[in-house]
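[SOLVED] Need 3D model of a two-part complex

Original post:
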Amino acid sequence: MISTDICIIGAGPVGLFAVFEAGLLKMRCHLVDYLPQVGGQLSEIYPQKPIYDIPGYPEIKAQELVDNLMEQIKPFQPTFTLGERVEHLNKQADGSYIVVTNENTQIHAKVIVIAGGLGVFEPRKPALEKLDHFEGKGVAYMVKNPETFRNKKVVLAGGGDSALDWTIYLANVAERVTLVHRNETFRGAPDSAAKVFDLANNGKIDLILSANLKELGGNGKLSSVTLEGKNKEEIVIDADYLIPLFGLSPKLGPIADWGLSIDKNAIEVDTRDYSTGVERIYAIGDINTYPGKLKLILCGFHEAAIMMHSAFKYVYPDQKLSFKYTTVNGVNAF
Amino acid sequence: MVTFTVEDHDGNRQTVEAPDDMGLSLMEVLKASEYPVLATCGGMALCATCHVEILEGEDALGEATDVELDQLENLPEYFPTSRLACQVRISPLLEGAVIKLRGEDN
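Solution:
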């Protein structure tokens, strides 16, 4: 089991900066995020967009800010669990928590900080009957390990870069790849689109355009995907796997079940220290709400500093915290 | 002021009045009217969570831009008159339009 002082749920900019504020107070952090990389919305949605309201930076690209934050927290050696979603918070007799992810990773922490932004970025799902029935039994929303699909019949759906990239990759791995797209053309990277058309023209993959997913078939496990073609005709494809790739969308996810006070998908906090109603659990950044809340990165940074000073009492119950500027003590690495 | 109709996820319709001289987007007006519009990216046409369908009045609004279409075409479900509310400006062109919320609610 991973053991740390503070477990931060969400590795976006506010979660990352919280590591720095914790580090100044000699508290160690472990971060968990469902995305496979740090940076949250900044890295996932708009890495190349400039941000103009970070103090000291007249303009900074979103990914550059994330990279800088990673550099800034390096002295405090945070650890990460990425690509996993926190499912449960199990309270221990001494008040600490064991955080359990969907992959059963367990993290013991004295304090929990929820810096989950708008929630967990989950795949957008097509509106198909029995979709949930086949999840994990043929329907997958991401390619974690391409070897899973070796010598299998795979249907991919979507027209973006992910659908194109995985079609090209899996063409050399799977027994047969079928790409289904609702339009006649792709708006993804032109090079990738050209490769996909080449693969189709050379008979390496099946490309079905102007078609939509209609129905899933199988007994316990996926065995076929039915499409509706341009002229409303049905097309049935034998399939071991269906991978719908329609992008990601934020959902509150399991956070909603942790007994916290929730208002319109945000966690209500006490603005004196950004604590939730549950002892040792704090919420900072876009995931929290209070009168006057502004969903700005810089507001999340402020919240991180204040909450870490409050959390100190749980990590070092026998010590008195005295506030010091970094100009006095510098940044003392672990 | 411009007046248009919004149909929510449950099919309820309500008339919304919005100023057409403040450079607001439809997404901003929907949020201000407390409709459950996520608008994750804040209006950069990068997340498609403010997806709407223009049921009436779509001709007046013109074509979606390439940036907007990029996002719309990635959605599992979209319609010939789909738009991103963040890319539709509040203007007299919206007068009498009927807009159906399609994006994920919050």
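Edit: Chain A has a mean pLDDT of 95.
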